[in-house]
Design goal:
Elements lengths: L6 H12 L10 E7 L4 H16 L2 E8 L4 H14 L3 E5 L1 H10 L5 E4 L14 E4 L5 H9 L7 E6 L1 H17 L3 E6 L6 H8 L5 E4 L8 H13 L4 E3 L2 H5 L4 E4 L2 H16 L9 E2 L5 E5 H6 L13 E4 L1
Parallel strand pairs: 1-2, 1-3, 3-4, 4-5, 5-11, 6-7, 6-8, 8-9, 9-10, 12-13
Antiparallel strand pairs: 10-12
Helix pairs in contact: 2-10, 3-4, 7-8
Length: about 300
């Protein structure tokens, strides 16, 4: 004998036909989003997350913006904890570090945290999407334009990005690249370090290191590398817009999409609520066409690819 379907499910089926965009509101799992502040990059993550939540049957019950305020953020986190969502998505350093301090029994997924290892975000309830693209993917991205790339120079302050460099050395080696390092402790040392690398490297790799990259030092780096025909490689398209040759960087909407998929996996776990730290599963490639021209590089064969962005 065939059982008649419950009226609730009949209603849900009919509702989903006429209102497909909101059908996920009936789903069981709820997520709360916390942004560190109102930035376009963070908003792109939110939009990507919202779109993918529809297919993963996740309800976003609230979105909070901390506006960069720590005290307000702490009070907000305590209120959020009482709401007891199934999972919390944090975007940016402030939201993530405060969530780590205040919440221990609700799964947390973070993203958009530059150099996440500095903040010791390894906990049994925390999963993260690294802001840095995997080294292997970065190298492949750079080599689409620089196929003879073998020796990459990097200037860094060990107190800021030493952990990234330590991890990158072996990964670069595995990708067939020798990483030639120069340590500095002051932005005044950038020029000397860069001149010492000339003739030893095929390209210079710039990390988001506040000692290395200031407005003055970046202008100096651009000038010296361009004069010596050294491609300047970065991890954000912001520097490409300002004159660097190219960057391999995250697509923020895709980070949101990946976050929603990870939320589904985390909520299906039977014991631990952590999947550890994962890399972005896609990336974009930004190229400055004027800089490429000055370096004698042709971008015709790659500029039409869907993951490539050309400036200006």
């Amino acid at each position: 004998m065939i059982k008649k379907p419950h009226l609730y499910y009949i209603f849900l089926f009919i509702f989903s036909i006429f209102f497909p965009g909101v059908s996920y509101a009936f789903s069981k799992d709820t997520a709360i989003i916390i942004k560190s502040q109102d930035l376009s990059a963070y908003n792109n993550v939110v939009e990507g997350f919202k779109r993918e939540c529809v297919d993963n049957h996740i309800t976003i019950s609230a979105i909070y913006n901390l506006n960069g305020k720590m005290k307000v953020g702490r009070e907000m986190l305590r209120k959020i904890k009482k709401k007891n969502p199934d999972i919390i998505l944090t975007i940016g350093v402030l939201a993530t570090t405060l969530a780590k301090e205040e919440i221990k029994d609700i799964p947390i997924l973070f993203c958009m945290v530059i150099n996440h290892e500095k903040f010791q975000l390894v906990e049994s309830n925390i999963t993260g999407i690294s802001n840095e693209i995997a080294i292997e993917s970065q190298v492949k991205g750079y080599q689409t334009l620089l196929d003879s790339l073998r020796n990459i120079g990097v200037i860094y302050d060990p107190s800021n990005t030493g952990n990234i460099i330590d991890n990158a050395v072996q990964q670069m080696k595995d990708a067939g690249i020798k990483l030639i390092k120069r340590e500095i402790t002051s932005s005044k040392m950038v020029g000397e370090a860069l001149h010492d690398l000339i003739g030893k490297i095929d390209a210079l790799w710039i990390l988001p290191d506040r000692t290395v990259v200031t407005k003055e030092s970046f202008d100096l780096i651009k000038s010296i590398t361009l004069k010596n025909k050294i491609p300047l490689l970065c991890t954000t398209d912001v520097f490409v817009k300002s004159g660097a040759l190219m960057a391999v960087f995250s697509d923020y909407g895709e980070i949101g999409r990946q976050a929603a998929q990870l939320v589904r996996k985390i909520l299906q776990l039977s014991s631990s609520n952590s999947l550890g730290i994962v890399y972005p599963d896609t990336f974009k490639l930004a190229i400055n066409s004027l800089t490429a021209q000055k370096l004698g590089l042709k971008i015709d064969t790659i500029q039409e690819k869907p993951h490539v962005v050309v400036y200006p």
